[in-house]
Q: What sequence folds into this?
């Protein structure tokens, strides 16, 4: 694993199937992350849209692997990455009383000199998105 990998873990008080839906279903993604046009499907491209600017692309990539309800792998980029495609790996496990989600975000070293600043911003961003996910799942 690269030194530029971001690893995050979140615990949600819902069954694994429910947590999986919040990662893969358009109506659930919109509640905590960003709006998208369709549910995630293996091999399909996806686009997530900005909340602030109607129709503006926020992040995009392709769904590379889906093993419901335990593993999702996708390519991922945002405008500040300047076309560099990174990878997200989501691993879900049932734990007593809910679900543990581990996110591993890799490939940021490809951004070169800008990698550290982008890692710092993305690290903070994932923390905020996970806080929104906890709120969305609880309601």
A:
């Amino acid at each position: 694993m690269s030194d530029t990998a971001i690893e995050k873990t979140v615990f949600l008080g819902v069954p694994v199937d429910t947590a999986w839906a919040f990662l893969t279903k358009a109506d659930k993604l919109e509640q905590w992350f960003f709006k998208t046009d369709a549910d995630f499907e293996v091999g399909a491209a996806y686009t997530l849209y900005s909340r602030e600017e109607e129709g503006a692309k926020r992040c995009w990539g392709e769904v590379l692997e889906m093993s419901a309800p335990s593993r999702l792998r996708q390519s991922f980029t945002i405008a500040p990455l300047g076309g560099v495609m990174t990878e997200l790996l989501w691993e879900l496990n049932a734990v007593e009383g809910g679900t543990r989600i581990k996110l591993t975000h890799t490939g940021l070293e490809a951004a070169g000199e800008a990698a550290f600043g982008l890692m710092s911003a993305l690290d903070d961003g994932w923390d905020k998105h996970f806080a929104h996910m906890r709120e969305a799942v609880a309601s």
